[in-house]
Amino acid sequence: MKDADLAIVGAGPAGMAAAAEAASLGLGVTVIDDNARAGGQYFRQPPAGFRHTGAMFLDKDRARGSVLAAALRHPAVAHWQDAVVWDMPEPGVLAVAAGEGSGRVRAKAILVATGAQDRPVPFPGWTLPGVVSAGGLQNLLKGQRVVPGRRAVVVGNGPLLLLIGANLVRAGVEVAAVVEAAPIWNRILPALASLARAPDMLALAIRYRAVLARAGVPVLAGWTVTGAKGDEAVTGCRVAPIDTQGRLDRARERSFDCDLLVAGFGLMPSLELPRLIGAELAYDRRRGGWTVKRDADFQCSVPNVHVAGDGAGIGGAEMALLEGRIAARAVARKLGKQVPADDDLRRAWAKRDAFRRGLEAIYAPPASFLDLMTEDTVVCRCEDVTVGDIAKRRSELAGSVTQVKATTRLSMGRCQGRNCLVTLAAMVAKDTGVDMATIPLPRPRPPLRPIPIGDLAFEDIPPPDIPADPHLPRKQRA
Amino acid sequence: MSAIPRRADIAVIGAGVAGLCTALFLARAGRTVAVLERGEAWGESSGANAGTLSLQVKRNEVLQVSRRAIELWRDFQERDGMEIGFARIGGLRVATSERELVNLRKSQGEQAALGVATEWYDGNRLRDFAPWLGPEVQAATYCDWDSMSVPLTAGHGLVMAVRAAGVTVATGAAVTAIARDGEGFCLQVGSEIVGAAQIVIAAGAWTGDVAQMLGVRLPVAADINMLTISEPAPRLFDRVVTHIGAILSLKQYPNGSVLIGGGWQGTGDLAQGTRRTDYLNLVHNLRVAMQVVPALRHLRMVRSWAGYEGVAADALPLFGALPGVPGAFVNACARGGYHQGPALGEQMAEMILGRKLSLDMRAFDPGRFAA
Ligand SMILES: Cc1cc2nc3c(=O)[nH]c(=O)nc-3n(C[C@H](O)[C@H](O)[C@H](O)COP(=O)(O)OP(=O)(O)OC[C@H]3O[C@@H](n4cnc5c(N)ncnc54)[C@H](O)[C@@H]3O)c2cc1C
């Protein structure tokens, strides 16, 4: 078992900023990340040795990312790349799968900085080849410098859509339309005060909008995708306006041809690790669902576990950088290091927090997107479970989330429920007329991500206790 | 909470495999039966288990019950149309050391004497028969009774079948007190009272608690067994695999997922309702699995979990009349109780109906623990 003062899970903005801060304050830090290179989603780098000169707009913030990544080479930082944290078997201990280096790390404090995932929103045709998620597209652009299409439509909800539309235009793709579910234009004015708290972000948004306008890309606000068309692959999509009651106005449906449909319905925190360890969560409708309850130092309800960045609640890269630093300082302080006062960091954080509240107000989605689904829409892609399958089981049995899971195999595949459980919970909430906040999701079980069984062959551990008669009642470790 | 029935001929406490199978055979004999379940049907051991139906790993005492159970599982699927995922694919019980070879020979002899023949494989015959076994496996016995099933679909199938037979299955219906009422019983469920002429305690690991409601002490321990499942993979092996020495059970489902278990212990506490996997034991479990089927090292595991298994102090079923309480019966805590569920349910129904039992169940009488 290795030891660390601070173990950081995730080398995105929050994790990298925390590592740099903690190392500079004299802590021994271990950073564990499942990517080959540090950066996370925002500072994602192409693979080492990758040469490509085009699409430099993607690299605008590269310098800052490189400075942070360089901090991971600090002598007090151990950076485990291609390494998956798959369990926290006891307080302060992380189980890590990393090929021959697999084993456990014991840390005085843990920072969870596991970032966000795309919010899955099923609609007819969403599983067709050529339909990609917003996060998936950004990965391809940033990590591989690949654009998987010539004519795109960008649909969904949230501030990422304008950015993606602009990136696609700059990458030379014809963008037929950006389709935003929230009626954002009517909402900007009331939110302007909060937005002005982060003028840099506001300027960026205006720039993206300008790129789209110059390219003549229509931005339909208050509209949503209602289906993707195509047999083998996507060939187009249908979109419809949403009325003031949140209902689809299918009479006014329009369609676009495209060979790339980017669907981004916002982000949600990757909460697997906090949920596994039983951290208290809070349902924050405005912020898009479940978030981690934290104190002022971003410590969650589990002692000595801090959660920073999008992995606690969606706030974006700038907020993540600040939260990582503040959390690292709190840990250093607790471990008896000399730490400067945080007032400037906390003031900067408050501005970002006000800004994100403004964004949330503008982009608040309709109550749900469940109306987009039809009987044969797939909800769980891994196990191929449709809306109809779920309805059948729910009519036969009481139909709680766990029972639907058990009888349909929904959430039991490779994605471990990341892309379907929230949809099932929303369906159950809607049918039974209760609030999403009251629907418990099944607690994740190790491994937090699929890991090669062979990785468990390497750690040096004491030999097992094999009972003489395994039939008799057994002893458990305390 | 679902609607609670007011009366039944027989109230069964617990909707796991023991309770549901008992209810099924009683209902088929024309009795009105209510199953009272504290949580969700199939929500505890029966929903968490591995679905291994291996005859040759059973203790000699339960060999006959276990063989009968395999016939019944097959009938459930083939005759009654329940989705059990039952497949009689045969099983290998392996030995990896000299001592295990001796034990395997001995066990083979004992089983043969009890009418369960297995076939011995070693050397090249073993490699030809099961080329996917690792080099450290020295010998194995093959039992063509050994089978597997898919507990998740089996549970759904059984609940549907039991309901179709007229049984009321009430969920969210914890029994909190039981009182004698003339010849029969009153059971407290929330603020309701359920009346029944006879009762069956089929409360798995909680059987001791329920028996205590009638003032009877039964020595029940709760094991915490772990299981791990892999992502779907191309076919690696085609038998149920168990181990004479180390603790292991392996099977590959039709969708390609491999289920790895055997009874390695997790941690937790039944009284507090806590349970989780134990890191070191999980690692050991997977190492034994890789030793026996080396190709497993290339698969990714997607999920592991721990569940309670109630076990009596001597690891034999608690089956029969509750000592000193006429009209009350126990059907619980068989080691490998999922496998044996249908046969134990059938025999329990025969006992309650006052018929002569087709199997000898005397060794399992709960009275053996009466002071
Ligand atoms: C991980 C694991 C793997 C296993 N693998 C296998 C295997 O491969 N093969 C095999 O044969 N066996 C296996 N077993 C054992 C097997 O699961 C059990 O023997 C069997 O399921 C027991 O069934 P049951 O109906 O007695 O108990 P359960 O399924 O636990 O049902 C008992 C029910 O009683 C309910 N209850 C308790 N108290 C009350 C109350 N007061 N009022 C109302 N309801 C109450 C509980 O909620 C529960 O639902 C395994 C067990 C585990 C945990």
Structure report:
The complex is a heterodimer of chains A (478) and B (371). Chain A has 478 residues and is an alpha/beta fold. Chain A contains twelve helices and 22 strands. Chain A has helices at 13-24, 62-71, 134-144, 160-170, 188-195, 199-214, 272-276, 317-334, 343-363, 387-396, 401-408, 421-432; strands at residues 2-9, 29-32, 77-80, 84-90, 93-97, 103-112, 116-118, 131-133, 151-156, 174-180, 219-221, 223-229, 236-241, 254-257, 260-264, 267-269, 281-284, 289-292, 305-307, 378-380, 385-386, 451-452. In chain A, the strands form six sheets. In chain A, strands 1, 2, 3, 4, 5, 6 and 19 form a seven-stranded mixed β-sheet that branches. In chain A, strands 8-15-9-10-11 form a five-stranded parallel β-sheet. In chain A, 48% of the residues are buried. Chain B has 371 residues and is α+β, with helices and mostly antiparallel strands. Helices cover 28% and strands 29% of the residues of chain B. In chain B, strand 16 and strand 17 (274-276) form a beta hairpin. In chain B, helix 1 (17-28) runs parallel beside helix 6 (151-164), helix 1 (17-28) runs parallel beside helix 9 and helix 3 packs across helix 9. The mean pLDDT of chain B is 96. Flavin-adenine dinucleotide is lined by residues 13-19, 36-39, 43-46, 48-52, 174-175, 202-206, 210, 225, 227, 249, 261, 307-309, 332, 334, 336-339 of chain B.
Write the layout of secondary structure elements.
The complex is a heterodimer of chains A (478) and B (371).
Chain A: E1 2-9, H1 13-24, E2 29-32, H2 62-71, E3 77-80, E4 84-90, E5 93-97, E6 103-112, E7 116-118, E8 131-133, H3 134-144, E9 151-156, H4 160-170, E10 174-180, H5 188-195, H6 199-214, E11 219-221, E12 223-229, E13 236-241, E14 254-257, E15 260-264, E16 267-269, H7 272-276, E17 281-284, E18 289-292, E19 305-307, H8 317-334, H9 343-363, E20 378-380, E21 385-386, H10 387-396, H11 401-408, H12 421-432, E22 451-452
Parallel strand pairs in A: 1-2, 1-6, 2-3, 6-19, 8-15, 9-10, 9-15, 10-11
Antiparallel strand pairs in A: 4-5, 5-6, 7-16, 12-13, 13-14, 17-18, 20-21
Helix pairs in contact in A: 1-2, 1-8, 4-6, 5-9, 8-9, 10-11
Chain B: E1 7-13, H1 17-28, E2 33-36, H2 45-48, E3 52-53, H3 63-78, E4 91-95, H4 98-113, E5 119-122, H5 123-129, E6 139-143, E7 147-148, H6 151-164, E8 168-170, E9 175-181, E10 184-189, E11 192-201, H7 207-212, E12 220-230, E13 240-243, E14 249-252, E15 258-261, E16 267-269, E17 274-276, H8 279-292, E18 300-312, E19 318-321, E20 328-332, H9 337-352
Parallel strand pairs in B: 1-2, 1-11, 2-8, 4-13, 11-20
Antiparallel strand pairs in B: 3-7, 4-6, 5-6, 9-10, 10-11, 12-15, 12-18, 13-14, 14-15, 16-17, 19-20
Helix pairs in contact in B: 1-6, 1-9, 3-9
Bound molecules: flavin-adenine dinucleotide.
